[in-house]
Design goal:
about 625 residues; alpha/beta; Leucine-rich repeat, LRR (right-handed beta-alpha superhelix); 20-stranded parallel β-sheet; about 20% helix; about 15% strand; elongated; disordered C terminus; binds 2-acetamido-2-deoxy-beta-D-glucopyranose
Length: about 625
């Protein structure tokens, strides 16, 4: 039995009247016959699968408002399609159908295995609804307004394995007893409680989706279960206890005479030995008792992000040794403790958005850790040469570490050999303004590092020798104060270079040469580039294969400056300068010429006067 009666504040009665006169039926039949002429033939051919999604609606050219229309339609369908008795797959989604209509349509569909009733207006499922279709395996009721499921509604459907009730208005499930069901989707309802009947029989349930509900307590799951997937994200859980304090328990007892087994009443945690995926994100957990994990021996992914965790402990008794992904991001963690020989399979650890200032060195005994997300914390990096262990995190000699994200921390100094022995592919140390970087900070990463992110660090100068990073493909340096970039002249592997919003006037010709072979994307906007001193760069970006942003450069105009897109720079933009030189040269030549003329003239005058005086003399 699966019923939702207990938690109802109000009861929805039979809202829909079925009593209709025959005349009305006939009138509608005529209209419907008319509209059915437009049914595309494909929909009716072969009666094992009938797809009428968004179609009934269309035929009648408005919502199917009442049973009259429906009965007529049904009669017409029978005429054209034959009875539903041989249909195996039926899609009636998006037809504005409500409760009584489906009861009516499904009253005789014994071969039906897959039924889709998505996006209708069903408010209630009665225990007679599916009595005419006992072969159902898959029922999709996604996106209706189901408030009530009568006791026994699914009980006779012995082959039912998938039930999608997501996006409805169900507020609780009591006495869940669908032993054969494999997948139950209750996401986006108003669930505040899920209770399985007390039984020693094993349930086949594999997937249970309770995402986006109003659960305060952990669901009461089958004692013997095979659940592999449990999504409880976006609820109001603050405890992993299955039931609340005794008064709430008493309340539940009062209203449904719940007989709680010792297992539940003692509030020990549920056993979930097959569970692979557990999502508890977006709840209100302040702590998670480590003994909760004791039975989770197969767990692969655990997500407790976006809660209020202040500390987190993995204990030797519940080592989570199958866990590959642990997401503890966006909590209030100051402290994290992983005991020895725990988390032996952990590959990816998300810790971003906490207030961690230290990390227990034990954390890095994780033998499989490859991916560390430490952004938005308060960490600094230890210097491997000094035996510094307090107030910093040691990131060297982690032989499996490939991806390290440390943006937005309080890094003030990146010491030499900070990551030596950790074969990083990706390093993000963006948004640590005014961080000093030792020349040898990236020593040891020469062969491995492919992505380096240093955005928004107020860097005036890049100390590190980039040309040594032979594998570097992505170099991300926007929002700094760099006045240039020096890559040496040997070809690099860089494909993507971002220097947006820096202080670059001239990009070194050697650097341009070094980038020439591999560069695919270049971002240089918001730099005071000078057109005529960047002819190497301009010729590079004007080659078709380099994708460049809208970077502008400055050139001298007759009076003052002009700005032009790097792509559009032409030789004449630099001629202004040349013509000035020409002008000066011409003026000089002219002045020189004038002077010569003047000199000659003076000389001539002089000789004339001389002659004159001569003649005078004469
Ligand atoms: C509707 O169509 C069916 C089958 O074509 C026919 O038997 C029935 O008389 C029609 N009804 C009306 C009211 O035209
Ligand atoms: C029915 O058709 C709709 C759209 O035409 C499609 O999205 C849906 O998957 C189909 N249903 C089945 C059971 O084939
Ligand atoms: C059913 O719908 C038709 C057309 O929308 C309308 O004419 C008729 O009065 C309705 N019947 C009832 C009982 O509401
Ligand atoms: C349930 O499935 C089994 C195996 O496929 C089949 O033999 C049996 O007829 C089905 N039961 C119903 C009620 O359809
Ligand atoms: C029919 O239901 C079965 C069992 O739930 C499922 O495996 C299958 O994919 C469904 N087929 C269609 C066409 O939806
Ligand atoms: C069907 O539901 C009614 C009302 O909820 C209930 O009285 C009746 O016992 C149920 N029948 C079965 C077979 O569960
Ligand atoms: C449950 O339904 C929701 C909404 O329809 C869907 O996004 C989600 O993927 C489903 N969950 C599972 C486990 O299939
Ligand atoms: C959960 O259960 C334990 C043990 O019964 C109890 O100590 C604790 O207070 C409970 N937590 C909440 C939040 O009810
Ligand atoms: C954990 O949940 C959050 C929020 O639902 C989601 O953004 C994040 O991707 C999840 N983490 C993993 C590892 O799936
Ligand atoms: C971290 O946790 C341990 C044990 O849980 C405790 O002894 C220590 O004081 C905590 N440190 C901080 C900084 O909270
Ligand atoms: C660091 O500590 C180790 C052992 O703890 C010691 O052998 C070494 O000399 C120390 N190095 C420095 C620079 O203090
Ligand atoms: C450059 O490196 C030296 C020594 O490695 C260091 O003292 C200096 O602060 C660094 N400068 C910058 C701007 O990072």
């Amino acid at each position: 039995m699966m019923s939702t009666q207990v938690c109802f504040l109000f009861f929805i009665g039979n809202l829909f009247s079925l009593r209709l006169s025959l005349c009305q039926e006939l009138q509608r039949e005529a209209d419907t016959n008319q509209s059915l002429k437009h049914i595309p033939p494909g929909d009716l051919s072969g009666n094992h699968a009938l797809n009428l999604s968004h179609k009934l609606f269309q035929f009648i050219q408005s919502d199917i408002k009442n049973m009259t229309q429906l009965k007529v339609l049904d009669a017409v369908l029978k005429k054209h399609v034959g009875p539903l008795s041989t249909v195996q797959k039926l899609d009636l989604s998006g037809n504005g159908l409500y409760t009584d209509m489906i009861d009516y349509l499904l009253r005789d569909a014994p071969a039906l295995t897959n039924l889709s009733l998505n996006e209708n207006s069903i408010t209630k499922l009665a225990n007679s609804t599916f009595s005419g279709c006992q072969s159902l395996r898959n029922i999709d009721l996604h996106n209706n307004v189901i408030l009530e499921i009568e006791e026994g509604t699914f009980d006779s459907l012995l082959n039912l394995t998938e039930l999608d009730l997501s996006v409805n208005s169900i507020s609780c499930i009591t006495d869940f007893n669908l032993f054969q069901l494999r997948s139950l989707n209750l996401s986006k309802n108003s669930m505040n409680s899920f209770q399985t009947i007390d039984s020693d029989q094993e349930f086949e349930l594999l997937y249970l989706d309770l995402k986006e509900n109003k659960m305060h307590y952990f669901p009461v799951l089958p004692r013997w279960n095979k659940i592999i997937y449990l999504d409880l994200s976006r609820n109001q859980l603050h405890s992993l206890n299955s039931t609340g304090p005794d008064d709430e328990l008493q309340y539940l007892r009062d209203i449904e005479e719940l007989t709680l087994t010792p297992l539940y009443s003692s509030k020990t945690h549920q056993l979930l030995p097959r569970l692979l995926y557990l999502d508890l994100s977006y709840n209100q957990f302040k702590a998670v008792p480590s003994d909760f994990f004791t039975s989770l021996v197969a767990l692969d992914t655990l997500n407790i992000s976006n809660n209020c965790l202040e500390s987190f402990l993995v204990d030797t008794d519940s080592p989570l040794n199958a866990l590959k992904t642990l997401d503890l991001s966006f909590n209030n963690l100051q402290n994290l403790t992983f005991k020895e020989k725990t988390l032996l399979a952990l590959e990816t650890l998300y810790l971003q958005g906490n207030i961690l200032s230290i990390l227990d060195p034990e954390i890095f005994n994780l033998p499989q850790i490859t991916n560390l997300h430490l952004q938005s914390n308060e960490l600094s990096v230890c210097d491997p040469l000094q035996n510094q262990t307090s107030d910093c995190v040691s990131l060297y000699s982690i032989r499996t570490l490939r991806y390290l994200y440390m943006s937005e921390n309080k890094l003030t100094f990146l010491p030499a050999h900070a990551f030596i022995g950790s074969p990083l592919l990706i390093l993000d140390i963006s948004l640590n303004p005014n961080m000093k970087i030792s020349e040898q900070a990236l020593a040891g990463l020469e062969r491995t590092l492919t992505h380096l992110y240093l955005r928004g660090n107020h860097l005036k100068k890049l100390n590190i020798s980039l040309s040594a990073l032979h594998s570097l493909k992505v170099l991300d340096l926007p929002d700094n104060q760099l006045d240039g970039l020096f890559l040496g002249e040997r070809a690099t592997a860089i494909e993507i270079l971002n220097l947006q919003n820096n202080n670059v006037k001239v990009l070194d010709a050697g650097t341009v040469l070094a980038l020439k072979k591999t560069l695919k994307t270049l971002s240089l906007a918001s730099n005071p580039l000078i057109c005529c001193e960047n002819m190497h760069l301009i010729s590079l970006v004007q080659q078709a294969h380099v994708d460049i942003d809208s970077a502008m450069c400055q050139y001298t105009k007759d009076v003052g400056y002009g700005e032009i897109n790097l792509r559009d720079v032409k030789s004449e933009h630099c001629e202004t300068l040349n013509s000035k030189v020409l002008l000066i040269a011409m003026i000089s030549v002219l002045v020189l010429g004038l002077m010569i003329v003047l000199l000659v003239a003076i000389k001539l005058c002089h000789s004339k006067s001389h002659r004159f005086s001569n003649s005078y003399k004469a």
